[in-house]
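can u do me a favor
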């Protein structure tokens, strides 16, 4: 009874906060509160059906539109959240104290999101939903909704949510891009830079002294020399530059997400060069990155390049093949059919030899990595395999999937894979029986 009263009190207080910003941006933490009530209830029984019922009734049935967005985007189901609770219990317990500190950050979020209207008059508002998203993302968007997965994003820093929300909200008002390499790094770096402008108190390098921006400022020349080998790639592959993938080795140190840094520096150069800052901000937000040529044009206009690099960028030819790709004969990659099973297989690259796990995430399991029944078995020093009964797949239906290393390192299909599909700007392996 006391627990229910506390939950009701928190939701009432948060609802009162939200009305202060009505018709502009709604910020909701209701899903987080509901999740922890469901989580505590799940711990009271070992009966699987009862545990599923707790999650369904206390979390999913009460869910906000944000939680519905996650289900629609990723196809996650009740059993996926139960799997999360059982496989990530220790991690969840560590994060729990920080997940509701967003209540204390609400006034800052309100203020900064209101300031976005001053930076960008065409801003129409939207919604921010804090939720537990099945260990799939820290932040993502759907339409004008920013979705924050607190089980990944929450930290002990007292303002952990502010910059992340601003970054994701910039994505809700940007023009969609084609997800080719240059376009995508500009888009993500722009969200970083605009979030920093709005945050105001600290730079990203100060907020995250051990991450890509701070590292980038100290190693920019070497990063640019490596980055420009890839800017001609007109395919979605991120080559360890984005999305927490493996990372690039620069000056003897491996660092993730340096593509964000390069896009950040390009956008920062464009903004600093502009006389009319408000117009520059609007130009960036409304930048059309739906073609490689438009991305090239923005890079040239940014003022980031020296004369030699400007000449290089003007002459470069966009291609699907990166400089270090080893492209052999086109073939089906990732699986084979043996009797009544689909045998998935993945061979580690030399740079991935330290990977501890490989799992399969796809349209057949809600794109959720690290599910127990889709975690592969190591059969040699470099090879992982998993046999899945054919009966689990519908004959004739086309499925899409990716291999995921260590729970968050999503692997793009190799260039020699003939079984690829591009959808929504992403390239995935395909499976059809």
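np, heres the sequence
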């Amino acid at each position: 009874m006391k627990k229910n009263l506390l939950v009701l009190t928190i939701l009432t207080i948060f609802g009162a906060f939200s009305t202060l910003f009505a018709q502009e941006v709604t910020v909701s933490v209701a899903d987080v509160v509901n999740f922890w009530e469901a989580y505590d209830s799940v711990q009271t029984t070992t009966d699987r059906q009862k545990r599923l019922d707790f999650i369904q009734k206390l979390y999913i049935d009460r869910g906000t539109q944000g939680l519905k967005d996650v289900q629609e985007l990723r196809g996650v189901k009740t059993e996926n959240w139960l799997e999360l609770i059982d496989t990530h219990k220790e991690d969840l317990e560590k994060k729990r104290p920080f997940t509701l500190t967003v209540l204390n950050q609400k006034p800052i979020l309100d203020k900064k999101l209101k300031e976005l209207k001053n930076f960008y008059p065409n801003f129409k508002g939207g919604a921010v939903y804090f939720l537990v998203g099945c260990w799939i993302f820290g932040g993502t968007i759907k339409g004008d909704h920013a979705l924050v997965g607190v089980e990944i994003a929450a930290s002990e820093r007292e303002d952990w949510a502010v910059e992340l929300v601003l970054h994701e909200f910039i994505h809700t008002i940007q023009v969609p891009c084609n997800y080719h390499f240059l376009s995508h790094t500009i888009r993500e770096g722009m969200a970083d830079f605009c979030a920093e402008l709005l945050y105001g108190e600290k730079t990203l390098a100060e907020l995250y002294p051990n991450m890509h921006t701070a590292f980038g400022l100290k190693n920019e020349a070497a990063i640019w020399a490596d980055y420009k080998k890839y800017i001609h790639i007109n395919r979605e592959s991120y080559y360890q530059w984005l999305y927490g993938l493996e990372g690039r080795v620069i000056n003897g140190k491996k660092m993730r997400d340096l593509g964000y840094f390069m896009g950040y520096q390009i956008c920062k150069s464009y903004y600093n060069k502009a006389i009319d800052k408000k117009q520059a901000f609007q130009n960036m937000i409304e930048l059309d990155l739906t073609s490689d040529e438009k991305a090239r044009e923005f890079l040239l206009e940014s003022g980031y390049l020296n004369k030699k690099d400007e000449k290089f960028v003007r002459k470069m030819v966009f291609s699907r093949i990166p400089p270090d790709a080893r492209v052999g004969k086109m073939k089906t990659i990732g699986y084979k059919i043996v009797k009544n099973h689909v045998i998935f297989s993945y061979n580690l690259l030399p740079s991935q030899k330290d990977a501890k796990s490989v799992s399969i995430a796809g349209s057949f399991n809600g794109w959720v990595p690290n599910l127990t029944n889709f975690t592969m078995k190591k059969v040699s020093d470099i090879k992982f395999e998993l046999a899945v009964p054919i009966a689990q797949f519908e004959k004739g239906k086309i499925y899409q999937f990716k291999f995921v290393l260590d729970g968050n390192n999503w692997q793009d299909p190799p260039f020699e894979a003939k079984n690829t599909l591009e959808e929504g700007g992403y390239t995935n392996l395909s499976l059809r029986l």
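The first helix runs from residue 2 to 19. hope that helps!!
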